[in-house]
Design a protein that fits this description.
heterodimer, A: 316 residues, alpha/beta, Rossmann fold, Alpha-Beta Plaits, 2 domains, six-stranded mixed beta sheet, four-stranded antiparallel beta sheet, 10 helices, 32% helix, B: 256 residues, mainly alpha, 12 helices, 79% helix, ABC transporter ATP-binding protein (chain A), ATP-binding (chain A)
Chain lengths: 316, 256
């Protein structure tokens, strides 16, 4: 169990983390979601007492991280896969970590085996690919057989096989009753692994909800209609008491009405339809809407391409 | 968390990177090699001196003439031991494993200091005997008054140079920056200031200028230093302690 209470971090004028309060519970994968620069890594560094909070505190099983005896046996973290000395072999890197926390050296071989790096254990880690580095970082996190695991953007730069492996690993760790806290800036990734979501933007808490609730609340389903007789179609729908939204590219969108009903309505009035398709707004879009006001680095689109965002752009 | 665990871990760290081997090997080779060459050349020079001048020759100190170069390798050793934690990002992994920063830093510096002292002790004795062999009839004996102290002091000097470098690297948190500041100080600024009459009064309190006094057996003719061998060494200890203390304060208070 990780408890974050009133956590804030200020860098000069900039408030990177702003009064965050949430809990990370055991037995599930908790996704920590936010756009780049939202304060995810800063929050995770404060959890490990690497950065000192400006205000607030983090408790790990009720204790401050610094007060944990042999902390690697409580919390295993992969914050940055490159946070190691490239001149040291994978084995020695893990060995020095194990020794510092009184973990038996035999455990090093076990975790190397778990992550599939046994063959390169004696090789210096500077020659490792990104994926191998990530695996070595995960081996370090697993070293103390901790009940709490933290991964910061673990799938970054991994090949599909590696991504699949990490997803399964996180799920199985949670299934063993451990607390798994994983950050990402990709909603689609979280949708596949997380049971619970903590969403932040510009350092502030935007949502703290179960994944099921988030999907229920945020996934919008609608029907897209396209017709050469758009004006008449509009009137017909309007008379039937159906709200229509004009989207880009001359399409109409209708919320909350089944596509069958719309098709029959069009047929009754002998309207030609070029498109009648049920749509499901992705969680990625829901996430983008949630964080729209708090994205750190906006890419400004050119005025001429203002309609380029497709179906979600036309709700005006 | 037991300190013994952290010491054990730091020992694994230091012996598992190549830079440890090559910096300490360089320290040995430079100090012994250059000391031998200069002793050979000094033998010729000494043989042309008159009796009055010969009163002031210091065969022990002459054999340690390579220390000036060897200490640079010791500086690199000290800087890399600490600085590589920062340049590689390992520091975050290390501090997550050992969140008590004092225990982390003093274990690291402690282990590196012991290793540096072991190498420096061997270097010092080899330097002395090789140098004396090159000096021929001008040689000093290890049993002469003050000689054993000077040879032992030579080892302590080399060790403290490394400790000072470790402290500076902890303050600056970057090996390049640390080397960029330490190298000119020890290779250029201190010798220049020490060589000019007007600035010598200040320069004599710099760590290397004060510290080398411990390797002196014969007081030079125009010596103005207001301290003896151990006094000079004490000044150097103070410098190294100050650097490590400041480094600890930086590590304790800053985000990793």
């Amino acid at each position: 169990m990780i408890e974050v209470a009133g956590l804030s971090k200020r860098y000069g004028q900039k408030l990177a983390v702003d009064d965050l309060t949430f809990q990370v519970r055991p037995g599930i994968v908790t996704g920590f979601l936010g756009p780049n620069g939202a304060g995810k890594s800063t929050t995770m560094r404060m959890m490990l007492d690497l950065d000192r909070p400006t205000a607030g505190a983090v408790r790990i099983d009720g204790k401050r991280y610094t007060d944990l005896k042999d902390p690697l046996t409580y919390v295993g973290a992969l914050l940055d896969a490159k946070a190691l000395h490239g001149g040291r072999s994978a084995y020695n890197h893990l060995l020095c970590l194990a020794q510092s926390n009184g973990i038996p050296a035999s455990r090093v071989g076990e975790v190397l085996d778990t992550v599939g790096l046994t063959a390169v254990a004696k090789k210096r880690s500077k020659g490792f690919s990104l994926g191998m580095g990530q695996r070595l970082g995960i081996a370090g996190a697993l070293l103390g057989d901790p009940q709490i695991l933290m991964f910061d953007e673990p799938v970054n730069g991994l090949d599909p096989e590696g991504i699949h492996w990490i997803r399964n690993l996180m799920k199985s760790l949670a299934a063993q009753g451990r607390t798994v806290f994983v950050s990402s800036h990709l909603m689609s990734e979280m949708a596949l692994t997380a049971d619970h979501l903590v969403v932040i933007g510009q350092g502030r808490l935007l949502a703290d909800t179960s994944m099921a609730d988030f999907i229920r609340t945020n996934s919008r389903s609608y029907v897209r209609l396209r017709s050469p007789q758009q004006e008449r179609l509009r009137d017909v729908l309007h008379q039937a008491g159906i709200t229509v939204v004009t989207a880009g590219n001359g399409t109409l969108e209708v919320d909350g009405v089944a596509s069958e009903q719309l098709g029959e309505l069009a047929a009754q009035h002998q309207l030609v339809l070029h498109e009648l398709s049920p749509q499901q707004a992705s969680l990625e879009e829901a996430f983008m809407q949630l964080t729209a006001g708090s994205v750190e680095y906006h890419a400004h689109s050119e005025p001429a391409s203002g309609q380029g965002w497709g179906s979600t752009g036309g709700e005006n | 968390m037991a300190v013994a665990q952290v010491l054990n871990s730091e020992w694994t760290k230091i012996k598992s990177v190549r830079s440890t081997v090559w910096t300490l090997t360089m320290a040995f080779v430079f100090t012994v090699g250059l000391g031998f060459l200069i002793s050979l050349l000094s033998k010729d020079q000494f043989s042309k001196m008159n009796a009055r001048e010969l009163q002031f020759i210091d065969p022990t100190l002459t054999s340690f003439a390579g220390t000036g170069l060897g200490q640079l390798a010791m500086i690199v050793f000290g800087v890399l031991v600490v600085g590589n934690e920062y340049s590689t990002g390992m520091i975050r992994t290390s501090l997550a494993a050992v969140p008590r920063r004092g225990a982390f830093l003093f274990s690291k510096i402690g282990i590196a200091t012991l290793l540096a002292f072991a190498v420096a002790l061997v270097t010092s004795f080899v330097t002395f005997f090789v140098g004396q062999a090159a000096l021929g009839r001008f040689k000093a004996s290890i049993g002469d008054p003050g000689v054993l102290r000077a040879v032992f002091g030579g080892a302590l000097y080399m060790t403290l140079i490394a400790v000072f470098a470790m402290g500076v690297a902890t303050i600056l948190r970057s090996p390049m920056l640390s080397l960029g500041i330490l190298m000119p100080i020890f290779f250029l600024i201190a010798p220049i200031l020490g060589g000019v009459e007007a600035t010598r009064k200040i320069a004599q309190y710099l760590p290397d200028q004060a510290g080398t006094k411990v390797m002196q057996v014969v007081t030079p003719e125009n010596d103005v230093a207001p301290y003896g061998p151990w006094g000079g060494f004490g000044i150097m200890v103070a410098w190294a302690a100050l650097a490590v203390l400041c480094g600890w304060l930086v590590l304790k208070n800053r985000d990793a």
